[in-house]
Each structure stands twice: as C-alpha cells, then as structure tokens.
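Example A, followed by Example B.
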Amino acid sequence: MSRVVRLGLCAAFLVLGACASAEEDTGGSVGGGLSGGAEGSPEAPVLEDVIPLAKVLRVRWSVPSACEEIEAERRTDAETFTLAFTAPATDTDHVDEEANTDQTYTYRLRCLLGEETSDWSNTLSANPFDE
C-alpha cells in the first residue's frame, strides 16, 4: 500500500519536479530526471507503479509529452540495465512476463520521438513473488 501513498505524493510533487522514493535509484541513469533532455527533446515518461501479478510484473506509466514509442529497461541487483520491451506511445502499461523469478527487478523508461530520446524516467522496483 505504500506505493499508492507514494504515487499520490509524487503526483503532488511532479509540478515541482521532485519525487523521491525508497525504491527510486537514478544512479547510473543518463539524465535520470523527470524532464526532457536537450531543448526540443520529448519529456521522460513517469513510471507510476510496478505491480506483482501472478508471478510476473505489470509496469504502469504515464506519458507527459508526444512520443512514438516507449522504451523500457530492466535490471536485477546482479545486472546492469538492458532493454526489456518497447511499447507504442498509446500504451500506459505492459505485463513483463520475463520478470518471473523470485528477485527484485528495477525499471526505467524513456520516450522515443523520431531520432530524439527523452531522459530516463524515475526508477521503480518490485519482486513478482511479493503478491
């Protein structure tokens, strides 16, 4: 239930450009912020929740600016970020069936618009076995 409270606080602080979480880890991310990179670049998606669902994870996000695709990266504690999935910009969630072992997975997202990419989103983590 702490995610629901945190999400509400994040939504309130999004206007101020700040949202911290015990699960958030921007270390090693390029840009790591919630706003777009260079002028004219799309804004980063906002990662809203990672939900355990029948031993896999459901990733939910919102997109604050025009995007063509969402690119998601995933890592475990023992790995570095690697491509997990891409989704059409009209999607706001994805069930990651490859996140199916008893360990914590951390996600980050970015918006793709033509040749431009946003900064990476905030990060959130969950274990698919923590239902």
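Example B, a separate protein, is given below in the same form.
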Amino acid sequence: MIADLKPYAEYKESGLPWLGQVPGHWSLIPNRGLVRKRKVLVGNRHGDYRLLSLTKQGVIVRDISTGKGKFSSDMGTSQEVRTGDLVFCLFDVPETPRTVGLSRHDGMITGAYTIFESLGRGSAEYFELFYRAMDDRKLLSPLYSGLRNTIPPERFLGTKSPLPPPDEQAAIVRFLDWANGRLERAIRAKRKVIALLGEQKQAIIHRAVTRGLDPSVPLKPSGIPWLGDIPQHWVVERTKNVFRLRTQKSGLSHGKELLSIYTHIGVRPRKDLEQKGNKASTTDNYWIVQKGDLIVNKLLAWMGAVGSSDYEGVTSPAYDILMPIRPLCSDYYHHLFRTKLYQQLFKQRSRGIMDMRLRLYFDQLGQIPVPFPPVDEQAAIVAFYVEETADLTVAISRLNREIELLREYRTRLVADVVTGKLDVREVALRLPDEAPPDATEDDADLHTDADASDEKATL
C-alpha cells in the first residue's frame, strides 16, 4: 500500500523554511491557536504522582527502583502532566535525543520541560507526529537562540504549523500507526535474530576466555565458585594487580581523538561531537587514553560498556581508564569483561542508592578476580574466537544495517506524510485493522552511546 502513495494535486508555499510547500487546501495556524502552555508544580503532593520521562520512545513511566537515569533532588519542583498533554524539551535541541512526546499517562515530569495542552482545534496525535518529524531532522534551527540552542516558548507558540482538515489528520494518524506497526514488527524480528546470534557468539567467547583452547589440558579449581575450573597452568589475579587507573589529563593537547565507549561495539571516536564543533581544545579536563588501555563507563559497565582502545585520544572524565601494569593482550580482557558472567559481577559490585544511578568504582572493580593465561595464549585465544565468530559478526552487522535502513525509511516516510508530500487519504480507508506492537521500550540504538542518559534535563 505504501507504494500506492502519490503527491497531492496542488501545493502552496508555507513561508516556513523548514516546511516548504504544503497541500493547497491545508491551513497554516500559529501554535497558540492549537495549544497553550501549562505549568502546575506538584509541590509536596509529589508522592501522589507517577514519575514520567521524555525518551526516544516517547513519554514513559519511570521505574525509580532500577536506579537508571537521572532524578531531581527535589521532586516538588516537578510539574503535572495529564494524559493528552504534549511534552517538549526546548533547550539543547540539536543534542537532545527526543524533543517532543504526547503523554498517554497522568503523572509528573521535571520542571525543565515545557508542557502544552491541546485547545481541541487539531489532533494532538498529528501535532506530535509533525514535530517528531521536525525533531528527527532537527529542522527548527531558525527558532534557536542563545548558547544552549533554546526555543523560547513564546516563539514556539508564534510559529505556524500545518493543519489539514480533521478527517485528513485522522487519516494521517491511522496510516502512520499502521506503517509504523509494520516497520516495528520487522525491526523487532531482526533484533530477535541478532540476540540469538549474539548468544551463540558469547558462548564461543565465554568458553575460550575461561577455559582456553585445548580441551585436553588438565584443569584445576580456580578457588572462585563463579569461575569454576581453569587450565592448570593459568593463574588468577585481582584486577588491581593487572591494571591500574590512568590519571593523566589531556591538558592543552589539541587534535586528539574524542573517544567513547559503546555498549555493543566498544571504543570508537566520537565523530558526532567533532561535527558539532566539540574539539579537543574544549576537553582539557579529559583523560588521556593510550592504545591498549581499557575504558570503563562506571555507570554502564554492567551492560558491557567496557572495552579496549585501538586509538590514542581523550575521553570523558566520567570514565575510568585502566592501563596495563604488566604485559598482556588487552583484547582478551575486553572480551572477558563483556561476558555475561563479568557483567553480573560488575552490577553486584556497583554502588548507589535508589535515587542515584549505580556506579562501578575502581576500588570494587580492582577486587574482582580474573584469569591470567600466559600472554601468548591470551593472544591465541583472541585470534581463535575472532575467526570462529567472524560469520556471526558479519551476520549481526548486516542485520544492524538493515535495521538502520528501516529506521531511516520510517523517518522519511513520516516526514513526507505529515508535511503533505504524500497523500494517504485513499490508502487509509483500505487499511486492515491490526493490533499495534506491544508498547515495550524500543532499544532503538543497538549501538547505544553509553554517554547518553534516558532523560536530558537540567536536574
């Protein structure tokens, strides 16, 4: 049905640089004619509200018992959100993963956000879809002001939005719900295959890094219940006897790579920061990283945000940098620390309380025992599992690319429909009734940036 979509017969200029032409029969209405700002602080009634968050998946209910994400130290400064309200993040717009969400929950959210309630003239669902499309492509830069790229609420309210006729808004929402459901099911099916391939890969790696390559080698008890037997010629060391913290600051080192640790792909240069003009000259307080160092994100080590660096550069002071203090193969420990066994240990050793995120500090990480095979055997183990898992790695990479293409297609389709580049009225009438995918949180970025938090706000 998507292939049947065609442009409208007649267009007119919108006068808005981020919108271009719109169908000739659509109206253009200042936002103050569609929504109004509302701010009601919850004060000492905050215990009566559920805590909400604006994420890439929309407005969700937060589970504060997980300790995941940022929390305000004063919940009384949160503001009320009602079902049907539109939540906007109008500051740091270029860097914010999601700037708009339609709430389907009653609750409260940090006072840093801007809440708009619908005046009933247009569909709140269409309004959200339109501004999500603008947000996905960060097209509202003409409205920014100040160093933090803020859109003042009054400027936003004075900005015009397209307003199709009511039946056409309903057709657009119906069509995009259907199309998004189909695309989301395809994406989730590919993610399930990736998970299965990842489990196969992890099983190969886990056996190699904890038992070695020779199945006939004599074993001995490691003395550690969760590690079990290890090859007889291996030793067990505390992490602090293998690595120590690197504490060298970058100072005025210009031209250094900006590095980050990603939960699924390890250490990579932060090219996105360079494109935003965030050069090494602005990172004088960052840690120096040498090739072979391990970067540990203290907040997300338990999710696999630990990895060896193939680069020299600088990285966030929020990370710990582990430098080898004896000859070893860093890639061996890169994979050892990313096994489920060690991720569970990292979570157990992380410290924090309910309203603060857990952190794995080196005083705890350093106490964790690790196997220490001979260095040449460490390198042989790495070479073995790289070769053994090569086909799995290629298949996972291909599936990730297919998911990326599906998401890019979805972004473009939504933008073309909500801006009137494609007419969905006839197709929407023929759509079958389909249940939407379960509203589970979409782990949208398999290559999640471990720097990113769920909720971008000044807390």
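On Example B: The radius of gyration is 26 Å.
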